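Take the subject:
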Amino acid sequence: MKRTHIGGVLILLFISVICVAFRMTGNDDFDSARREILLRRIGHELLLQSGDSTSRVLPVKKIAGNEYQISFEHAFAFQPGSLVNTTQRLLAKDPLASEYVVNVLNCSDATIVYGYVISKNKKDDIVACIGRHQPLACYKINIKFKPTGIITSSNGYFLGSLTVLAFAGFIFLRSVKPPKALPDSPAIVTLGSMSFDTETGKLLTNGKTIDLTRTETRVLRIFALSPNEAIERSRLQKEIWEDEGVIVGRSLDMFISKLRKKLEFDPNIKIVVIRGKGYKLEISS
């Protein structure tokens, strides 16, 4: 696979990761909003159980990363057993709320008047005093959820994509070699009656300008630095094509042929084939 294709794959993978990240953010917002509605429902049912059908459950507050607080407009009384049953029944609808701690606080001094722990394994539940009625007072209920530590399918895909992207990027960057720098040469090189501008890729002869492509410029520059000397075919392939990640077939012969046509304005300049070795730029005096 060519490096340009690998680069395209990396770009597509990066876009996919970004899309998954946005999707995960959306899912997190949805789950959080759904959980807050369940918590408000707990407050609503507690008030109904105490005989209050008119006062409000105040907005649920997120007081920590995994902890929420339910507040009420007016004082109420409650049965601990009813609170335990209500929270278990409603929070069973939250797939990420299998383990949590509930504390009921007195509004006046923030003391804990009742609390319990619900675990994934029922034998690890800590629930006590469910038969003792709690008197009329102002209460706040704090519910702290245990971080799941479970990678959901979306999270798993996101993390997996990041890993693949990082690995592919490392391989890609490691394998890409910068174009091999050719030896320094004068900006203008004289080739017989021609002047070769190595920077702009132009041949100047008798007031005529001949434009060269980038690759033609690189090939001719190698020849111009070693006139009348054999240049191995493998060297040209290595320095011009392979270092830039292009697979060489008949490309070299094609560019040599094009250069010959552009040099034919001076009959004293020829690129000749050295059989079994490579090429030579012959410049006759």
